[in-house]
Amino acid sequence: xxxxxxxxxxxxxxxxxxxxxxxxxxxxxxxxxxxxxxxxxxxxxxxxxxxxxxxxxxxxxxxxxxxxxxxxxxxxxxxxxxxxxxxxxxxxxxxxxxxxxxxxxxxxxxxxxxxxxxxxxxxxxxxxxxxxxxxxxxxxxxxxxxxxxxxxxxxxxxxxxxxxxxxxxxxxxxxxxxxxxxxxxxxxxxxxxxxxxxxxxxxxxxxxx
Length: 209
Ligand code: PCA
Prior knowledge:
Layout: E1 2-8, H1 18-24, E2 29-30, E3 33-40, H2 46-58, E4 62-68, E5 75-78, E6 80-82, E7 109-111, H3 116-125, E8 130-133, H4 140-154, E9 160-166, H5 182-194
Parallel strand pairs: 1-3, 1-4, 4-9, 5-8
Antiparallel strand pairs: 2-3, 5-9, 6-7
Bound molecules: pyroglutamic acid.
The site of pyroglutamic acid has 12 residues, from strand 4 and helix 4.
């Protein structure tokens, strides 16, 4: 089994991006799964095109994209990507896309396809703070969350994909924002990869009345 895992380059005023630092520290084999790390630029479409090339080259079973979510206090697994770019800042090539569809021929939104709730459960069992997020924002992380789902569905690629946002690390010195030690983030990603092929937990029994 192969897991393609991406991290982003630094962007905005930050000199490092913990998503890239974290994926660089992962072993290349976790629980018998081959881990293929790839760095993405924080640039609309360039990020996606690099991922699509990597998907075609490596034919992974899973695509796990990681990004920084400054201000969040825990590991958040994204449930959904939406078909809109509405950038609050420039991407790393100076693009500011406002209220533009990512793909004109795409659905309004796509759910991610990892066992998100099961992965949250695993992280909590290991005492790593984690929760489901219902918005990946409207910048490049949502662009990638949405764009990967669009690509996999359009080209009928049998591969599951999801997105994980991580907090700042203390070394970034965002003193008024929460942060998480890089070692904990690396542990979280290791657990996620270990359990990436688990069954999703049953959501509810759903009483009929
Ligand atoms: N975080 C940004 C883009 C790159 C990253 O690491 C985001 O949340 O959109």
